[in-house]
Amino acid sequence: MELYWGDLHNHCGISYGYGSLANALTAARAQLDFGAVTGHALWPDMPPRQPGFEFVVDFHKHGFAKLAAKWDDVIAQVNAANMDGEFVTFNSYEMHSRRYGDYHILSPAPDLPLVDGDAPAALLAQLDGRPAFAIPHHVAYVPGYRGIIWERFDSALSPLVEVYSKHGCGMSDDGPFPYLHTMGPRDGRTTVRRGQALGHRFGYTASTDHHAGYPGSYGDGRLAVWADAKTRPAIWDALLARRTFAVTGDKIACSFAINGAAMGSEISAGERQIVLSVRGCDALDRLTLYKNNAPWRVIGRHDLEPRAGDVFKVRLEMGWGWAADGYEWEGRLKLRDGELLGVETCFRGRSVLAPSQEMADDDAMNALDNRIMAQENDVLDWRCTSFQNHSTLHPSTAALILEIRGDAHTTLEVLLNGVRARASLGELLACSRGVHMKPYNAEAFLLHRAIPEWAYTLHAAWTDNAPALPCDVYDLEVRQVNGQYAWVSPIFVES
Ligand SMILES: [Zn+2]
Question: How far apart are CA 306 and CA 452, in angstroms?
Answer without folding.
Answer: 9
